[in-house]
Amino acid sequence: MAGLREIQNRIRSIKDTRKITNAMYMISSTKMRKAREALEHTEPYFYTLQAMMDRMMRHFPDVSHIYFEKEEPEEEHRLGLLVITGDKGLAGAYNHNVLKLAQQFLDGRDAVVDLFVVGELGRQYFTGRHIPIEENFQYTAQNPTFGRARWIAEKLLEKYQSGELNEIHVIYTRMENSMLSVAEDKKMLPLRRPVMPQIPLDVRQEEFRIEPSEKALADIIVPNYITGFIYSALVESFCCEHNARMQAMESATNNADELLHDLGIMYNRARQAAITQEITEVCGGARAQKQKSNN
Asked: Which of 63, 119, 248, 255 supports an S-S bond with 92, CB 3.0-4.6 Å?
């Protein structure tokens, strides 16, 4: 059995660790709540933009634009992939799931892929495997703002408009609920044309007119939609990261409590054994002294 001093040192060390894990849980909880509030304030605007695009593509299915899918695919296919990870660990399987999906994306494509990375752990992962990174957006994973989302969108759209990229995908983590987060691959550009429903002839349809043109409307709406989607993906990933860290820190705190309980029992047993040994030694010495006096 370990000595009393050794057990005391372990108990003290675990208590200090428990304070850290509990503090990290509280910090992640606060950051996640603030990020969710910021996202809820901006979501209605971008949902309206998306609905407007759907209406435009539904009423003008034959409109031709660089942002919309073409009937004939490009001969030279070059993809852009935006991967959103975290800057720090201690978040369970959050970063692992994103990087695993990104690696599967790279392995499953024959086309050239330009890699855009958000998050220090993502940069370390691809750099360690000698996978070239087109651009690394630093100081974004822990501070997802609309300005940073617009900056990323401008970089991606510039390459897409110039023809350097034919498709743009984003891999991020979407929060299904407070207990489940899913790493997801989303194709941002080109936009997929909706399936046209079969409308009966006797049903009156709404009148839809665009001024000055469909192209001018797409030039304005689509970049804003891409910016909003990237901002949403950044905030969703940020929330998922802190939600995963909350669960990991809660599990670590519970494990620390269990260890402290077991070490408390071990300490009491060791202390009781030491007391018993001292009493036995005192009684043995007293008995020996008494026998010596009688002789």
From this structure: 248
